[in-house]
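debug: dumping io for the single-chain case to check the tokenizer round-trip. Nothing else runs in this session.
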Amino acid sequence: MELSEEELRLLEQMERALVEEDPKLASTLRGTSIARTARRRMIAGGGVVLAGIGLLIVAVLLDLTSVLQTVVGVAGFVIMLGGAILALTSARTPGRPAPKVRSSGRTGFGVVDGGRQHRPGRQGRQRSGAPFMERMEERWRRRRERGF
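debug: decoded output
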């Protein structure tokens, strides 16, 4: 739904007033600081991953008791995993909307629109509403009629 010219003009006036009154809030709302924060989190996550790898190497190289070596190794792995999770969750594009979930009307799981693009001009295979076994029986019947 498009905004009228009057609404657009009022919105621009409100935006200018916000920038004049609180420029820091306006820059935060524009998203520049959100991207900067995500970049910082990715760098921090990479540093934590490197620290976890370093702890794993220390656990292997130092002559420790086997129990202490195991504890230090597991701690290094957990730290490394936490850093990877921190870096990867902040790597998402901040302005990108979450994927839409299509529901087929049934309860349970829905289909997430993700990486595969739907092409409007291309027709996919049409699926009949018949259950799986009926479709298989129909295929088998057609094969027998053709003589394969």
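debug: round-trip ok. The first helix runs from residue 5 to 21.
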